[in-house]
Amino acid sequence: xxxxRAAQLxxxxxxxxxxxxxxxxxxxPLRRVLTMRTLDAWLHELDIRQALGLPDRxxxxxxxxxxxxxxSSLTAIWxxxxxxxxxxxxxxxxxxxxxxxxxxxxxxxxxxxxxISGADPDLTLTASWPDLLDxxxxxxxxDDPAVAERVTLTGETALxxxxxxxxxxxx
Length: 171
Known about the structure:
Layout: H1 3-11, E1 19-21, E2 27-29, H2 30-51, H3 61-72, H4 74-81, E3 89-95, E4 100-107, E5 113-116, E6 123-127, H5 129-136, H6 146-150, E7 151-155, H7 157-166
Parallel strand pairs: 3-6
Antiparallel strand pairs: 1-2, 3-4, 4-5, 6-7
Helix pairs in contact: 2-3
């Protein structure tokens, strides 16, 4: 065991804001590293379950942690990756199962993506949680013909195309 990690384990109780070595050797808060590991392990579990013909296990703590992490990335996807103009709003409707919600993000005057509510969206993306999960985790390519059957986009079509190609956030 690396001496630095042994010292961290011996310290306990653990401060989730403490900086630890994350993937690729970069320092990150412990909370983020644990979230990333949970996401990674759970997605691999889903892959294995699918390969074995077992049902998905979407309703579990790891699934909720993954959902929170992926959905929180929508602000950056909208503002940076999709390069939405300042003041434009994306509404994402997740229709379940397990995760069912509507959220809105916009681009503020500084060009940052922020969550909002009650706006008239320029683009609405509607998908089931498994379909959105497949897109965001790279299990479904944005150019796959199945996307047209599994995801509904209404509003600014050019922005819709950019959002779809930007949704994959898991390497």
